[in-house]
Protein backbone atom coordinates (compact mmCIF):
# COMPACT_ATOMS: atom_id res chain seq x y z
CA UNK A 1 0.00 0.00 0.00
CA UNK A 2 1.31 3.46 -0.87
CA UNK A 3 2.49 5.22 2.28
CA UNK A 4 0.68 8.50 1.74
CA UNK A 5 -1.88 9.34 4.45
CA UNK A 6 -4.04 12.23 5.56
CA UNK A 7 -4.61 12.50 9.28
CA UNK A 8 -7.56 14.54 10.54
CA UNK A 9 -7.28 15.86 14.08
CA UNK A 10 -10.79 16.21 15.51
CA UNK A 11 -9.37 17.83 18.62
CA UNK A 12 -7.93 20.59 16.44
CA UNK A 13 -11.34 21.15 14.84
CA UNK A 14 -12.90 21.56 18.28
CA UNK A 15 -10.08 23.83 19.38
CA UNK A 16 -10.43 26.09 16.34
CA UNK A 17 -14.17 26.40 16.79
CA UNK A 18 -13.41 27.37 20.38
CA UNK A 19 -11.17 30.17 19.09
CA UNK A 20 -14.04 31.44 16.92
CA UNK A 21 -16.45 31.33 19.83
CA UNK A 22 -14.06 33.19 22.13
CA UNK A 23 -13.55 35.87 19.50
CA UNK A 24 -17.31 36.25 18.99
CA UNK A 25 -18.75 35.31 22.39
CA UNK A 26 -22.18 36.87 21.85
CA UNK A 27 -22.78 35.27 18.47
CA UNK A 28 -24.01 31.88 17.41
CA UNK A 29 -21.88 30.00 14.89
CA UNK A 30 -22.63 28.51 11.51
CA UNK A 31 -19.73 26.09 11.06
CA UNK A 32 -19.03 26.13 7.33
CA UNK A 33 -18.65 22.53 6.13
CA UNK A 34 -19.05 22.95 2.36
CA UNK A 35 -16.86 20.98 -0.06
CA UNK A 36 -16.82 17.92 2.19
CA UNK A 37 -15.80 20.14 5.11
CA UNK A 38 -12.91 21.61 3.13
CA UNK A 39 -11.69 18.08 2.38
CA UNK A 40 -11.78 16.93 6.01
CA UNK A 41 -14.88 14.72 5.71
CA UNK A 42 -18.42 15.99 6.25
CA UNK A 43 -19.59 13.48 8.86
CA UNK A 44 -16.28 13.64 10.72
CA UNK A 45 -16.26 17.43 10.84
CA UNK A 46 -19.93 17.71 11.82
CA UNK A 47 -19.29 15.44 14.79
CA UNK A 48 -16.14 17.27 15.86
CA UNK A 49 -17.87 20.64 15.51
CA UNK A 50 -20.73 19.64 17.81
CA UNK A 51 -20.45 22.93 19.72
CA UNK A 52 -21.50 24.91 16.64
CA UNK A 53 -25.14 25.95 16.72
CA UNK A 54 -25.57 25.21 13.03
CA UNK A 55 -23.87 23.89 9.91
CA UNK A 56 -23.58 25.80 6.63
CA UNK A 57 -22.82 24.34 3.21
CA UNK A 58 -23.63 24.58 -0.48
CA UNK A 59 -24.74 21.13 -1.53
CA UNK A 60 -28.34 20.04 -0.93
CA UNK A 61 -27.43 16.34 -1.13
CA UNK A 62 -24.80 16.84 1.58
CA UNK A 63 -27.40 18.53 3.78
CA UNK A 64 -29.80 15.65 3.25
CA UNK A 65 -27.00 13.21 4.06
CA UNK A 66 -26.49 15.00 7.37
CA UNK A 67 -30.18 14.74 8.15
CA UNK A 68 -30.19 11.02 7.28
CA UNK A 69 -27.30 10.53 9.69
CA UNK A 70 -29.34 12.04 12.51
CA UNK A 71 -28.08 15.64 12.43
CA UNK A 72 -30.79 17.82 13.99
CA UNK A 73 -29.09 21.20 14.19
CA UNK A 74 -30.05 24.01 11.81
CA UNK A 75 -28.47 23.63 8.37
CA UNK A 76 -28.07 26.60 6.05
CA UNK A 77 -27.73 26.31 2.27
CA UNK A 78 -25.36 29.16 1.45
CA UNK A 79 -26.46 29.53 -2.17
CA UNK A 80 -30.05 28.63 -1.47
CA UNK A 81 -31.92 26.49 -3.98
CA UNK A 82 -31.20 26.17 -7.69
CA UNK A 83 -34.51 24.76 -8.94
CA UNK A 84 -38.13 24.80 -7.72
CA UNK A 85 -38.20 21.03 -7.16
CA UNK A 86 -35.54 21.36 -4.47
CA UNK A 87 -37.92 23.28 -2.20
CA UNK A 88 -39.92 20.22 -1.20
CA UNK A 89 -37.00 18.29 0.37
CA UNK A 90 -35.63 21.54 1.80
CA UNK A 91 -38.92 22.17 3.58
CA UNK A 92 -39.33 18.54 4.61
CA UNK A 93 -35.93 18.54 6.30
CA UNK A 94 -36.25 21.98 7.85
CA UNK A 95 -33.29 23.50 6.03
CA UNK A 96 -32.64 27.24 5.96
CA UNK A 97 -31.90 28.89 2.62
CA UNK A 98 -30.13 31.97 1.37
CA UNK A 99 -32.23 33.97 -1.07
CA UNK A 100 -30.06 36.28 -3.13
CA UNK A 101 -31.92 37.30 -6.28
CA UNK A 102 -35.32 38.14 -7.72
CA UNK A 103 -35.70 34.82 -9.54
CA UNK A 104 -35.26 32.80 -6.35
CA UNK A 105 -37.68 35.09 -4.55
CA UNK A 106 -40.32 34.65 -7.23
CA UNK A 107 -39.99 30.85 -7.05
CA UNK A 108 -40.35 30.95 -3.27
CA UNK A 109 -43.46 33.13 -3.52
CA UNK A 110 -45.13 30.62 -5.84
CA UNK A 111 -44.18 27.52 -3.86
CA UNK A 112 -46.90 25.61 -2.02
CA UNK A 113 -44.99 24.36 0.99
CA UNK A 114 -46.37 22.79 4.17
CA UNK A 115 -44.17 25.07 6.25
CA UNK A 116 -42.52 28.39 5.49
CA UNK A 117 -38.73 28.35 5.25
CA UNK A 118 -36.15 30.13 7.35
CA UNK A 119 -34.58 32.57 4.90
CA UNK A 120 -31.28 34.45 4.89
CA UNK A 121 -31.79 37.51 2.71
CA UNK A 122 -28.46 38.31 1.12
CA UNK A 123 -27.44 41.83 0.22
CA UNK A 124 -24.68 42.59 -2.26
CA UNK A 125 -22.52 45.23 -0.57
CA UNK A 126 -19.51 45.04 -2.88
CA UNK A 127 -18.49 41.43 -3.40
CA UNK A 128 -20.56 41.49 -6.61
CA UNK A 129 -21.21 37.77 -6.69
CA UNK A 130 -24.54 36.99 -5.05
CA UNK A 131 -27.01 39.25 -3.32
CA UNK A 132 -29.76 41.75 -3.98
CA UNK A 133 -28.61 45.20 -5.07
CA UNK A 134 -29.09 47.80 -2.38
CA UNK A 135 -31.89 49.58 -4.23
CA UNK A 136 -33.90 46.33 -4.43
CA UNK A 137 -33.28 45.11 -0.91
CA UNK A 138 -36.14 46.75 0.99
CA UNK A 139 -38.69 45.60 -1.56
CA UNK A 140 -37.26 42.08 -1.37
CA UNK A 141 -37.61 42.14 2.41
CA UNK A 142 -41.25 43.17 2.17
CA UNK A 143 -41.97 40.32 -0.20
CA UNK A 144 -40.06 37.86 1.98
CA UNK A 145 -42.10 38.86 5.02
CA UNK A 146 -45.12 37.39 3.24
CA UNK A 147 -43.57 34.07 2.21
CA UNK A 148 -40.72 33.28 4.64
CA UNK A 149 -41.01 31.76 8.07
CA UNK A 150 -38.18 33.86 9.47
CA UNK A 151 -35.70 36.30 7.96
CA UNK A 152 -32.06 36.93 8.77
CA UNK A 153 -30.09 39.63 6.97
CA UNK A 154 -26.81 38.60 5.41
CA UNK A 155 -23.86 39.88 3.41
CA UNK A 156 -20.36 38.66 2.57
CA UNK A 157 -17.14 40.66 2.91
CA UNK A 158 -14.84 41.02 -0.06
CA UNK A 159 -11.72 42.32 1.70
CA UNK A 160 -11.94 41.45 5.39
CA UNK A 161 -8.50 39.88 4.97
CA UNK A 162 -7.03 42.86 3.12
CA UNK A 163 -6.20 46.53 3.40
CA UNK A 164 -9.62 47.89 2.51
CA UNK A 165 -11.33 46.11 5.38
CA UNK A 166 -15.09 46.02 5.99
CA UNK A 167 -16.24 49.52 6.93
CA UNK A 168 -17.28 50.46 3.41
CA UNK A 169 -19.44 47.34 3.14
CA UNK A 170 -20.91 47.78 6.59
CA UNK A 171 -21.96 51.31 5.64
CA UNK A 172 -23.70 49.99 2.52
CA UNK A 173 -25.35 47.23 4.52
CA UNK A 174 -26.71 49.63 7.13
CA UNK A 175 -27.98 52.01 4.45
CA UNK A 176 -29.80 49.26 2.56
CA UNK A 177 -31.17 47.44 5.62
CA UNK A 178 -32.42 50.68 7.10
CA UNK A 179 -34.03 50.20 10.46
CA UNK A 180 -35.03 46.59 9.88
CA UNK A 181 -35.08 44.87 13.26
CA UNK A 182 -33.98 41.46 12.04
CA UNK A 183 -31.14 39.11 13.00
CA UNK A 184 -27.91 39.52 11.05
CA UNK A 185 -25.13 37.23 9.78
CA UNK A 186 -22.08 39.06 8.48
CA UNK A 187 -18.72 37.76 9.66
CA UNK A 188 -16.56 35.17 7.91
CA UNK A 189 -13.32 33.87 9.46
CA UNK A 190 -11.34 37.04 8.72
CA UNK A 191 -14.03 39.31 10.14
CA UNK A 192 -14.46 37.14 13.24
CA UNK A 193 -10.76 37.53 13.98
CA UNK A 194 -10.26 41.17 13.02
CA UNK A 195 -13.55 43.09 13.16
CA UNK A 196 -15.64 42.60 16.33
CA UNK A 197 -18.21 45.11 15.09
CA UNK A 198 -19.31 42.56 12.46
CA UNK A 199 -20.09 39.68 14.81
CA UNK A 200 -23.84 40.32 15.09
CA UNK A 201 -26.20 37.38 15.71
CA UNK A 202 -24.57 34.64 13.61
CA UNK A 203 -20.95 34.29 12.47
CA UNK A 204 -19.76 31.95 9.73
CA UNK A 205 -16.31 30.51 10.53
CA UNK A 206 -14.83 28.60 7.61
CA UNK A 207 -11.10 28.30 6.91
CA UNK A 208 -10.15 29.04 10.52
CA UNK A 209 -11.97 25.88 11.66
CA UNK A 210 -9.45 23.83 9.69
CA UNK A 211 -6.42 25.52 11.20
CA UNK A 212 -5.43 27.90 8.42
CA UNK A 213 -5.17 31.67 8.49
CA UNK A 214 -7.46 33.89 6.42
CA UNK A 215 -4.72 36.54 6.38
CA UNK A 216 -1.67 36.60 4.11
CA UNK A 217 0.35 38.46 6.75
CA UNK A 218 -0.58 36.60 9.95
CA UNK A 219 0.09 32.95 10.64
CA UNK A 220 -2.45 30.46 11.91
CA UNK A 221 -0.16 29.72 14.85
CA UNK A 222 -0.13 33.38 15.86
CA UNK A 223 -3.94 33.38 15.72
CA UNK A 224 -4.02 30.38 18.08
CA UNK A 225 -5.22 27.92 15.44
CA UNK A 226 -4.14 24.30 15.08
CA UNK A 227 -3.86 22.39 11.78
CA UNK A 228 -6.67 19.87 11.44
CA UNK A 229 -5.21 18.02 8.43
CA UNK A 230 -1.71 16.61 8.12
CA UNK A 231 -0.74 15.11 4.77
CA UNK A 232 2.23 12.76 5.12
CA UNK A 233 4.11 10.14 3.15
CA UNK A 234 7.54 8.49 2.93
CA UNK A 235 10.62 8.40 0.77
CA UNK A 236 10.41 5.50 -1.67
CA UNK A 237 13.79 6.04 -3.34
CA UNK A 238 16.85 8.30 -3.26
CA UNK A 239 19.28 9.49 -5.94
CA UNK A 240 22.61 11.27 -5.92
CA UNK A 241 22.97 13.95 -8.58
CA UNK A 242 26.15 15.48 -9.90
CA UNK A 243 26.56 18.95 -11.37
CA UNK A 244 24.58 19.13 -14.60
CA UNK A 245 22.15 16.33 -13.70
CA UNK A 246 18.43 17.12 -13.84
CA UNK A 247 15.44 15.53 -12.13
CA UNK A 248 11.83 15.08 -13.19
CA UNK A 249 9.75 16.02 -16.21
CA UNK A 250 10.94 19.00 -18.17
CA UNK A 251 14.30 18.97 -16.42
CA UNK A 252 13.20 22.07 -14.52
CA UNK A 253 15.81 21.52 -11.79
CA UNK A 254 19.44 21.02 -12.70
CA UNK A 255 22.05 20.52 -10.02
CA UNK A 256 24.98 22.92 -9.92
CA UNK A 257 26.87 20.55 -7.63
CA UNK A 258 26.35 17.32 -5.69
CA UNK A 259 22.73 16.98 -4.53
CA UNK A 260 20.98 14.07 -2.88
CA UNK A 261 17.35 13.76 -3.94
CA UNK A 262 14.54 11.86 -2.24
CA UNK A 263 11.55 10.60 -4.19
CA UNK A 264 8.32 11.05 -2.24
CA UNK A 265 5.16 9.00 -2.79
CA UNK A 266 2.88 11.96 -3.37
CA UNK A 267 1.82 13.82 -6.49
CA UNK A 268 -0.89 15.92 -8.02
CA UNK A 269 -3.24 12.91 -8.24
CA UNK A 270 -3.16 12.93 -4.43
CA UNK A 271 -4.03 16.62 -4.25
CA UNK A 272 -0.58 18.16 -4.04
CA UNK A 273 -0.38 21.24 -6.31
CA UNK A 274 1.33 20.44 -9.61
CA UNK A 275 2.42 24.07 -9.97
CA UNK A 276 4.40 24.04 -6.71
CA UNK A 277 7.87 25.18 -7.79
CA UNK A 278 11.33 24.16 -6.70
CA UNK A 279 11.78 25.56 -3.22
CA UNK A 280 8.33 24.74 -1.85
CA UNK A 281 8.83 23.82 1.83
CA UNK A 282 8.57 20.18 2.89
CA UNK A 283 9.61 18.21 5.99
CA UNK A 284 11.78 15.09 5.79
CA UNK A 285 12.60 13.30 9.05
CA UNK A 286 11.03 16.29 10.74
CA UNK A 287 13.57 18.66 9.17
CA UNK A 288 12.65 21.47 6.86
CA UNK A 289 13.89 21.24 3.29
CA UNK A 290 12.59 22.05 -0.20
CA UNK A 291 11.01 20.36 -3.18
CA UNK A 292 12.95 20.04 -6.42
CA UNK A 293 11.73 20.02 -9.99
CA UNK A 294 8.24 19.41 -11.29
CA UNK A 295 5.55 17.60 -9.32
CA UNK A 296 4.40 14.44 -11.14
CA UNK A 297 1.12 12.57 -10.87
CA UNK A 298 2.31 10.15 -8.20
CA UNK A 299 5.70 11.48 -7.03
CA UNK A 300 7.63 14.58 -6.15
CA UNK A 301 11.23 15.28 -5.19
CA UNK A 302 12.79 16.52 -1.97
CA UNK A 303 16.26 17.92 -1.39
CA UNK A 304 18.00 15.66 1.14
CA UNK A 305 21.09 17.81 1.41
CA UNK A 306 21.78 18.28 5.10
CA UNK A 307 19.58 15.33 6.11
CA UNK A 308 22.05 12.43 6.03
CA UNK A 309 19.74 10.16 8.02
CA UNK A 310 17.06 10.28 5.31
CA UNK A 311 16.55 6.91 3.62
CA UNK A 312 13.85 4.80 2.03
CA UNK A 313 10.94 4.78 4.44
CA UNK A 314 11.82 8.08 6.09
CA UNK A 315 8.75 10.16 7.03
CA UNK A 316 7.73 13.17 4.95
CA UNK A 317 5.22 15.87 5.86
CA UNK A 318 3.66 17.68 2.92
CA UNK A 319 1.63 20.05 5.10
CA UNK A 320 -0.04 20.10 8.49
CA UNK A 321 1.62 19.54 11.85
CA UNK A 322 4.98 21.30 11.76
CA UNK A 323 4.42 22.87 8.33
CA UNK A 324 1.46 25.15 7.69
CA UNK A 325 -0.64 24.51 4.59
CA UNK A 326 -0.70 28.30 4.25
CA UNK A 327 3.06 28.38 3.68
CA UNK A 328 2.98 25.56 1.16
CA UNK A 329 0.11 27.25 -0.66
CA UNK A 330 1.88 30.60 -0.77
CA UNK A 331 4.94 28.99 -2.31
CA UNK A 332 2.70 27.30 -4.89
CA UNK A 333 0.92 30.54 -5.75
CA UNK A 334 -2.43 29.50 -4.32
CA UNK A 335 -4.32 29.43 -1.02
CA UNK A 336 -4.65 26.77 1.65
CA UNK A 337 -8.37 26.39 0.88
CA UNK A 338 -7.41 24.84 -2.47
CA UNK A 339 -4.90 22.43 -0.97
CA UNK A 340 -7.34 21.14 1.64
CA UNK A 341 -10.28 20.84 -0.75
CA UNK A 342 -8.17 19.09 -3.39
CA UNK A 343 -7.28 16.08 -1.22
CA UNK A 344 -7.82 13.10 -3.50
CA UNK A 345 -10.28 10.30 -2.67
CA UNK A 346 -7.43 7.83 -3.22
CA UNK A 347 -5.58 9.14 -0.14
CA UNK A 348 -6.43 7.06 2.95
CA UNK A 349 -7.70 9.17 5.86
CA UNK A 350 -7.26 8.41 9.53
CA UNK A 351 -8.65 10.32 12.49
CA UNK A 352 -7.09 11.29 15.80
CA UNK A 353 -8.63 12.98 18.79
Describe this structure as you would to a colleague.
The chain is α/β, with parallel strands linked by helices. The chain has two domains: 10-210, TIM Barrel (Alpha-Beta Barrel), CATH 3.20.20.10; 229-352, Lyase, Ornithine Decarboxylase, Chain A, domain 1 (Beta Barrel), CATH 2.40.37. Helix content is 27%, strand content 23%. It has eleven helices and 18 strands. The protein has helices at residues 10-23, 34-38, 42-48, 60-68, 87-92, 102-110, 134-147, 167-177, 189-194, 325-331, 336-341; strands at residues 5-9, 28-32, 54-57, 75-77, 96-99, 118-122, 150-154, 184-185, 202-203, 229-241, 246-247, 253-254, 259-264, 281-284, 287-292, 300-303, 315-319, 349-352. The strands form three sheets. An eight-stranded parallel β-sheet has the order 8-7-6-5-4-3-2-9. Strands 10-13-16-15-14-17 form a six-stranded antiparallel β-barrel. Strands 11-12 form a two-stranded antiparallel ribbon. Helix 6 packs parallel to helix 7 and helix 7 packs across helix 8 (167-177). The longest helix is centred in the N-terminal third of the chain and has 14 residues, at 10-23. The protein is elongated, with a radius of gyration of 23 Å. It starts with a strand and ends with a strand. The mean pLDDT is 97.
Any chance you could write out the topology, listing elements then pairs?
Elements: E1 5-9, H1 10-23, E2 28-32, H2 34-38, H3 42-48, E3 54-57, H4 60-68, E4 75-77, H5 87-92, E5 96-99, H6 102-110, E6 118-122, H7 134-147, E7 150-154, H8 167-177, E8 184-185, H9 189-194, E9 202-203, E10 229-241, E11 246-247, E12 253-254, E13 259-264, E14 281-284, E15 287-292, E16 300-303, E17 315-319, H10 325-331, H11 336-341, E18 349-352
Parallel strand pairs: 1-18, 2-3, 2-9, 3-4, 4-5, 5-6, 6-7, 7-8
Antiparallel strand pairs: 1-10, 10-13, 10-17, 11-12, 13-16, 14-15, 14-17, 15-16
Helix pairs in contact: 6-7, 7-8
Amino acid sequence: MRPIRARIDSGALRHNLGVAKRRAPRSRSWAVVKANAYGHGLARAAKALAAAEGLALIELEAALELRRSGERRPILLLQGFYAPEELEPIAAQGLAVVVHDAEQLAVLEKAQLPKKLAVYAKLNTGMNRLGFPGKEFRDALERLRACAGSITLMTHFADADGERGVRWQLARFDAAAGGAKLPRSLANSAAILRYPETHADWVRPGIMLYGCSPFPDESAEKLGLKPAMTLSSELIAARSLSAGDSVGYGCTFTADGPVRVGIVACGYADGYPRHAPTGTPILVCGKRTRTLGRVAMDMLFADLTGIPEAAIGSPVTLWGEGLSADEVATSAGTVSYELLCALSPRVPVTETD
